[in-house]
Write the structure tokens for this entry.
Amino acid sequence: MLLLLALGVLNYLCAGLFLGVFSNGFDFSVVHEAAVRLVHGQGDRIYDAFLSFQPGDRSLFFLYPPITAVLFSPLALLPEPAAWLAFQVLSHTALWAALAVWLEGEPDPRLRLRALLLFLFFQPLYLCLQIGQSETIILLCLMLALRLEQRGKPCRAGLCLAAAVCLKLFLAVLIVPLLARRRWRAAACCLAALLAAFLVGGAFVPWPTQARYWSRLASPFGLEGFWDNQSLTAISYRLMAFTPYTRGLVDAPALARALAGAAGLAALAACAWACRRASPGAALALGLTTAVLISPHSDTHHQGLLLLAFLALPQARPGRSAWLWFYAFFAQFQPLVAFKFLSRERLDAFAAAPADLLLALPALVLLAFWLYCLRLARESGEPAAG
């Protein structure tokens, strides 16, 4: 066990700390640029690249709601290299703060050690650190939300959940388990905070620009079949549509969109049903997995958020372990991440159905893991709150 712990620390120092600090952080650069424009009074331009994006482009663009740029605006006061270093310090601090929140009050030394090892070996989280995503900060928000709910502080829990949604919009799905479990105050506080965040965004980004952004976001914008999209939407489009990235069995994008929507609604309904009497940890694990699965565009780095699910499930059902699923899910993660860095010509070799399903392997395993979470949430059982 000491050897495993030593290997985990080495993994963190190399893949997390060293590669995090010295990588290019290209995703962070997009958010930093949007925040800089916001600070300089150019809020009407933060979505220029997104609104002009054409399917097939490999360009990056700012895709988040306006409040995200507002939250990152303090880093916009620094030049990008200094801002990147500050963001890395913030991200690693949030990672270890999240671990401290999770371990607080945990009496079982085996579960404490398991949590530490999961943090040290969770490769998707290190990918987030290397490209400059905010998953570690979101994990801290979600863990605080869970602990605050368990301590009978629903309003604070709702505010923490709202902070997570501001950073990743698809996490709004987590409101559904709250409503299913009748956590009315937590849900109301979360929704009120999100409304306030929307209004704050309106103070910096003109409403016409926001209208164009939300309209484009709600419609297909060409990334459904993207190589790194790992969601139900991606599976549908890879089978039933010809896209600039993959070629399905037939070219029926309307059918692909309809099936993706129906599957997403079915998964959301199943999540709400299973969460009615689920424990807080099991409900959050299922809600989080559902959010990643049904998001119209879900990159592999979003799966770093599933660390919380792997931590919560053994507690939701003592005696049942998620370790087998951990290895089944992530044994194939690192090789498939390499698709991000392959040339277009090599990716074309996987573009035609049914070979394109190889690109969706993480999504298929995620679907299996979602079914596991669904079962444990249904079996975790606790009285519904009034």
